[in-house]
Amino acid sequence: MPTRSTDFSHLRDGLIRAINVRAKDARLPSASYELSDEAEGTLSKNLTELKSLFPRFKVQRGHTLDIIVQKTRLNTYLLSLQYNGKELGTVESAPASTSGTLPPFTLPTTLLLAYVGTHPDISEPLRKSIASGLEDGLP
């Protein structure tokens, strides 16, 4: 939920920047994720798809923009973008390969980790809020 009025293009650009930074890190020898040539092609396609989901109008303060990531039965990851409960669209990764020693790099999981991973790129206060909410909901 944006803390002040903004526009979708501003939010989109911030998310794309976070994904690109993590993709750059995934290309390093010390990477935590595997970014194969095939995954590079899928990432490029997924970035284009993600950019197209954002409408061209303002996001009002207090309105919700939800990013939902789930693993499918086909071993892909699906990202759903919703504004005030209405789905704007989805982005689906290629099937996650389990042949490598590192987890595969996918746009949906990378965007999720940019928010809630150990080293969040986007918002440390949001990460803490999510963690607190999850802890409150667990037995």
What proportion of the residues is helical, as a percent range?
A: 40-55%
Helix tally equals: 4
Span between termini: 26 Å
Query: What is the chain-wise order of helices and strands?
Result: EHHEEEEHH
Largest sheet: 3 strands, antiparallel
- Mean pLDDT, all residues: 83
CATH class: Alpha Beta
Provide the number of structural domains: 1
**Largest sheet, spatial ordering of strands:** 3-4-5
Low-confidence stretches: none
Give the overall shape.
Answer: globular
What structural class is derived from the secondary structure elements? alpha+beta
**Radius of gyration over C-alpha positions, nearest whole angstrom:** 15 Å
CATH architecture heading? 3-Layer(bba) Sandwich
- According to CATH, the fold-level topology is Chalcone isomerase
Total count of strands: 5
Q: Please indicate the percent range of residues in DSSP E strands (runs of 2 or more).
A: 15-25%
Pfam families: Chalcone_2 (PF16035)
Protein name: Chalcone isomerase domain-containing protein
Organism: Malassezia globosa (strain ATCC MYA-4612 / CBS 7966)
InterPro entries: Chalcone_isomerase, Chalcone_isomerase_3-sand
